[in-house]
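Fold it.
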Amino acid sequence: MNNIKAILLMGILSVILITIGQAVGGTQGATLFLLISLGMNLFSYFYSDKMAIKMTRSQPVSEQEAPELYAIIRNLAQRAQLPMPKVYITPSQQPNAFATGRNPDHAAVAVTEGLLHLCDRDELEGVLAHELAHIANRDILVSTIAAAFAGAITWIANMIQWGAIFGGMRGDDEEGGGIGALVLAMLAPIAATIVQLAISRSREYGADELGARIAGKPDGLANALLKLENAAHRIPMQVSPAASHMFITNPLSAQSFARIFSTHPPIQERVQRLRQMR
């Protein structure tokens, strides 16, 4: 059900982008923005993992450097019938983690330094199982493309608004432009953000459930989520808002604006669902 919902929401994002093109440039604009949409999908498909690693400044770690971490991930990957992912450490004292990659054969898992210091083994297993669940469900590609679409829609809308301010949109005929395009440019980013949030939140619930099954018990993940949420309010993380959706808990929770537009469902609700799986 989550996959069907995600595909539907992705279709809505594509329609929003093409509709902006139609409003701005008529048929030619719609065609141009369709090509942009296809290009973004291809770029995100092949380079989403590299973008995520670079944006978070994560560094690869060898098995000799982190033998226990490798042992946990390898054991969980075998349970989930997944290939061993690449392993990274993110230089942040905020406890958190994320997974990236277009498919299980090109996946990576990154954990922050703070996560390794805060969580016990059961909690660490729960967090890592959650991230492997994202890989198994192929959530990462969908959420990355959604973030790229939302960002592009917002950027294009801003350009239209600035063009209107400086007199660059005087037309109002069937080929696009005018007041209709300006109104759409103001509403489209809001709609795109809502769609992106819906995609991200639905994927988190699914990864929590599958992750608890991979780990063999839900309490480890539930306890870890409570610890991570509390720490996120006390320990800031220097990360781009465009990358915040990837993490198991919102790394920007301490920011009031980020809480309003959070890409993650409420921690208490996630924990309650996990407790009910006992």
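Residues 27 and 175 are 7 Å apart (CA to CA).
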